[in-house]
Design brief:
- With 192 residues, this protein is of the alpha+beta class.
- It has two domains: 142 residues, Sandwich (Jelly Rolls); 48 residues.
- The chain is 47% helix and 22% strand.
- It has a four-stranded antiparallel sheet with strand order 1-8-3-6. A four-stranded antiparallel sheet has the order 2-7-4-5.
- Helix 7 packs across helix 8.
Length: 192
């Protein structure tokens, strides 16, 4: 089974014809490490599904500090949802953490899917709800959890990325400096 069909099939059932129709709408793309998929200020025109590799969504503040909001490893979807839905300039940039293979679903094709295969409205509602819950949880965690608790949550959410991502990116995601993360990791190892 195609990886994206397996992903969709977790939430909806599709006939063989519907699967073929969906697959025909997708655009395959390869990204090299650090290659940008979406730049802040551009209009996000597609959602991306990761076949292999890893993407990240981030913003850079007025002081030049990078803040990573999401990683998208294999079998995850990613987009600047605000820009995708409103067709306003993106507030996030998305790039490849490593060599990455993706499938792009243009927003226009997604709208067409909603009409032609109504089950996709359910699928995208489910993943949008999950993204909303994750984003809300992330805000609350940032406000109320310690750095160690945020790191432990990161490890649960992204278990395949703990040892593959640069420490600088993990630190950015949990809101600490790389030096603080290194010290915290050493303390966690000593306490085990």
């Amino acid at each position: 089974m195609h990886p994206i069909i397996a992903n969709v099939s977790k939430h909806i059932r599709l006939s063989t014809e519907e699967q073929a129709y969906f697959l025909a709408m997708l655009q395959a793309k390869s990204l090299k490490k650090k290659q940008i998929l979406l730049r802040e200020g551009e209009i996000c025109k597609s959602s991306a599904f990761v076949i292999s590799g890893c993407l990240r969504a981030y913003t850079i503040d007025h002081n030049g500090f990078e803040h990573i909001l999401q990683f998208a490893p294999k079998d995850w979807w990613i987009a600047d949802m605000y820009s995708l839905i409103t067709q306003q300039p993106a507030t996030l940039s998305i790039d490849a953490v490593e060599t990455t293979e993706i499938l792009l679903l243009p927003r226009t094709a997604q709208e067409q899917l909603f009409v032609e295969v109504p089950a996709f409205e359910r699928f995208f509602r489910i993943i949008t709800e999950k993204a909303l819950v994750t984003a809300r949880r992330r805000v609350l965690d940032t406000l109320s959890l310690t750095a160690q608790q945020r790191y432990e949550n990161f490890c649960k959410q992204y278990p395949t990325l703990i040892y593959t991502l640069p420490q600088k990116q993990i630190a950015s995601f949990i809101g600490v400096t790389p030096e603080f993360l290194s010290k915290m990791r050493k303390e966690l190892l000593r306490s085990k």
